[in-house]
Amino acid sequence: MHDFRYALRQLRCHPGFAAIAVVTLGLGIGAATTIFSVVDHLMLRDLPFAHADRVVTLWQDAVIDNDPMAEVAPGNYLDWKERNQTLEVMGAAEPYGFDLTGSGRPVILRAALVTDGFFEALGARALLGRLFDEADYAQGGGTVAVLGFGLWQQQFGGDPDIIGQAIQLDEHPVTVIGVLQRDLDLGFRAGPLPRELWVPRHWDEWEEGARAGGWWRVIGRLAPGVTVEQAQADMDRVGAALAAEYPTTNAGVGVTVMPIREYLVGASRTTLLLLVGAVGMVLLVACANVANLLLARGAAREREYVVRAALGAGRRQLIMQTLIESGVIAVAGAALGACLAIGAVGLVKSMAPVDIPRFSTVAVNLRVLGFSTGLAATTALIFGLLPAWQLSRVDAREALAEGRATAGRRGLRLREGLIVLETAMALALMAGAALLLRSFGMLIREDPGFERERLAALQVFHYEEGLTPAGRIAFFQSALKEIAAVPGVQTVGAVSAAPFAAADLNTRRAFTLPDLPAPSPGEEPQTYVAIATANYFAAMGIPVLQGRDFALTDDWTAPAVVVINETLRRRFLADRDPIGRRIVVGESAAPATIIGVVGDTRQTGLDTPPRPQVFFAHTQNGTGGMTFFVRTATAPGPLLPAIQEAIWSVAPLQTFYQVETVEDLIGASLVGRRFTISLLSIFAGIGLALAAIGVYGVISFSVNRRVHEIGVRMALGADRGAVVRLVLARGLRMALLGVGAGTMVFLLAAPAIADLLYAVSPRDLTALLLGSLVLMAAAAVASWLPARRATRVQPMVALRHE
């Protein structure tokens, strides 16, 4: 306690030192605590499912698309469920949407239709009421529903009496029987919004044979004692059997078994681990800086320690005194870091991609504060042991005989070594951030295949009860005319599989070209299929490379026609002229005539390559799920309400699944990369600032220690430039050594971020060179400030310094 009180007095007598040390450490601990809050919540905490280690997700491993997590075809799911021998229960969910009607304009609800076994496989619980039972599934999806917690709060005000009440879904009464537990987020999203309405799913007989395309998501629970590896081997057996039985649809289609935690963390795992490494570097730089501060203070206090040793203090007591002072600084830094983390977590949540499950509930809790406390103790040891060890080695007779601080001179080499460590970590952070920034710059310059400026997207599902395909065609033709009449609209078209849309309506089918040699069964080429209206390509700015666009005359009475994209033409028709050729898409479809070839587009992201695609005419295929693309003369945002009104003039109860500008859609696909770059850039900036402060501190201390030497040099005729060069050389030498060490750290760590890069090598020297130049410039400025002060030393004053 005496040492503790003395440590407090020392810090109170030197408030500047205390403030810098606490703020430096607070920044490091605050950053580490913030990232730990995220990692703890997403990767370490127990999931809200009973025996969550037994819950797995199952996906089709679509080898042809290099996609191990493709959604599951109903026919495959039913066979998986019947033939597997390792899963206790299995269930599936189909993304869906309902219109909540009955009061004013309808509100679209993001929903999922779930089969029996779905909630049982999850081990989910009802907060209110109950979940589905066998009778609910037998009746299908038209009678009862379970609300998600968020929907219950936002749409129904958290009314506990909602259980047993009927709500109008698509103008049909549906009884609410339960509300799901609060923290259930399965990552089943429609763009930024989770699916929070659950309805029983009863499949039709035709779905038992539906295998060509998948749209179900499957959950399973391992039987007791079964491992994920055993389940994977069992499902590999089932997948191989189905591939042999159904070669046309299942050749090259396997099964992926993935633990639920791995699915929920998903692609964010690499980002989180990268941020953990980055924040560890920041904390290391902060500790090195505080250690430097303590070493500098220790040099000034050498006489005090000499006297203590002369009065009988042993090495253990001297080390304990220094460690207690370090501990006080660490506790204060941890308290500041925890406060900073509470605010920073909110900032990180606002920056994070909205499609990371459970991210919205990340918070600083007692477990995180415990981590912060442990971090404080660890950092106190890290930055306290070096000064303690250095001061405990003071030779009292040598120090008193010389009349000067000897440990300060010996400690200067140690301090310079810490600066090399700091600059190395700062360079690795800056080069990593520069690498990601360069990659991001390459990505945003990619051509999506269409003109993204002045373009709006409105996704709708028009499936009124009793409406025929002809009726849906009539609705879209009328809506297109009304939208075209809105002032400021230049061109409008619609398509089913819209690029970057929230609801992914992409389907893949096998196809054949009758006038070419027929492929072997199971080896038919695959293409994605979309349905488009006339003027869709013109509205998007997609060039028609050969032939023509669809016309209104391509209706039910005309021969079937299609437009293909350049990737399909190049891959499967090579040097043959595609115009006028026949193509058969699907197992039992009639041949259609190719009338045009259009440019490629990127469908789901700027980093995804174009894929083969066939477009059918909407006037010959009256689907109701379409996205209007509207080209405007000015910015489209202000025109969106008028465009919606134009559609409502045709169908007053029509809901909109998504209403966005295309720039915003593309921007949403880049949020994850922006999140990583932003945080890494912040950490790099903190590391650079701390490294520059460290260089300044060491050089300033060195100048103060060499006042006598500088005075002698100037008295003997040295000019100011020589003094500046002398001081600058010391700072730049440390920075150069740090650059060398940082280069090795970067080259060793860079492969870890390879998955986050686009069109850039992880060992790109441009990023390393840029980071090195910035670091050397910062070191030069930090060294020049004390160098300039050194040139103002008066020789006579310096010679009397001792």
Structure description:
The chain is an alpha+beta fold and 802 residues long. It folds into three domains: 2-42 and 267-444 and 671-799, no CATH class; 52-265, no CATH class; 463-653, no CATH class. Helix content is 50%, strand content 18%. The strands form four sheets. A six-stranded mixed β-barrel has the order 3-4-11-6-8-7. The longest helix has 39 residues, at 406-444. It is elongated and about 105 Å long.
How many individual β-strands? 24
Structural class: alpha+beta
The tally of structural domains comes to: 3
Which ranges are low-confidence, i.e. pLDDT below 50, for 5 or more consecutive residues? 403-408
Which strand order does the major sheet show? 3-4-11-6-8-7
Could you outline the blueprint of secondary structure elements for this entry?
Elements: H1 2-13, H2 15-44, E1 55-62, E2 67-70, H3 74-83, E3 87-101, E4 107-114, H4 118-122, E5 126-129, H5 134-139, E6 144-147, H6 149-156, E7 166-169, E8 172-180, E9 189-190, E10 193-194, E11 197-200, E12 217-222, H7 228-245, H8 247-250, E13 253-259, H9 260-265, H10 268-300, H11 302-310, H12 315-351, H13 366-392, H14 396-402, H15 406-444, E14 455-461, H16 469-484, E15 489-495, E16 507-512, E17 526-532, H17 536-540, E18 544-547, E19 561-565, H18 566-573, E20 582-585, E21 592-598, E22 613-617, E23 625-632, H19 640-648, E24 658-661, H20 662-669, H21 671-705, H22 707-715, H23 720-749, H24 765-791, H25 795-799
